Amino acid sequence: MTWTFRLGHFLGSELRVHATFFLLLAWVAAAAWAESGPAAALDNTLFVIVLFGCVVAHEYGHALMARRYGIRTPDITLLPIGGMARMERMPEKPGQEIAVALAGPAVNVVIWAVLIALGASTEMGALVDPSNPQEFLGRLAAVNLFLALFNLIPAFPMDGGRVLRALLALRTDRVRATRIAASAGQIVAFLFGFLGLTSGNLVLLLIALFVFMAAQAEARDVESRDLAEGLHLRDAMITSFESLSPADPMHVAAQTLIRTTQHEFPVLDSEGRLTGFLTRQALFQTVAEGQNTRPVGEVMVQVPALPLAAPLSQALDALQQAPAVAATDPTGHMIGYVTSENIGEMMVLRSRR
Known about the structure:
It is built from twelve helices and nine strands. With about 350 residues, the chain is an alpha/beta fold. The two termini are about 35 Å apart.
């Protein structure tokens, strides 16, 4: 994800924060300062920071439970609307998916219980009116309980939605279960959006947009994986393509882009071995900066390479972190490549047969 900053590496996952999170802190501080002065600004800003520490703990709950089933979580990103743990894949067994989904809210419940045990107030007035001079721990306990309950709303792909999908998968196939859960999630997203518009709550609007788009994207991903079952990399790869060499200047790459329909270009050495890929985004950015003579080799990115017989599902996993996946022979010579776009096109054609 772009516009993120690395905070460190903890418990097997890289912790990152999105730049817009700092805008949230600035807005909270400014609003509190304007209403109640600098002391309130400091108190509210500190509260948001500690609260998002609880959000990070929530995401690590998912990550650590997923690790029990052999699923890595490369990174966790802190966003203004919450956290996002990027797992290599979701467990396909319903029981495992339920355990991973519930692990996050369970962390919030534990935090709430610990804070209550430490003497935090159970009054909910602080949640309704954050400016109420109530104890800090009481507010934190109330919001953690709210987060646990909110995340259990059956709006796929929120935690409650994943539990719903897993329960449905006990009685039907995973694709149909995902389709039903995604539809339910989008209905809830419309309700969130309506409430956000009528109340002027920008955060609720952002959550509605995220839920709607994420539900649609994950439903498509599950359908693609179902269609990819039994297929191999050679069944989907592009074999007719234009390539570049590492020494080619960027203006040559720009001319190649104009006269072809490719969005990315393999970069091959003189013997036809893959050295990297030049993406259209990198090409546009470099040309816009006036670096027309810069060698392609300085701008290209590395992509994973798989053998022709590799399962197509393995290529789909790799495409979550790369613009393309190359198909190479045992000597490293490139035979073809796949992208998310061309796999999606192939899946649409296969589904219409």
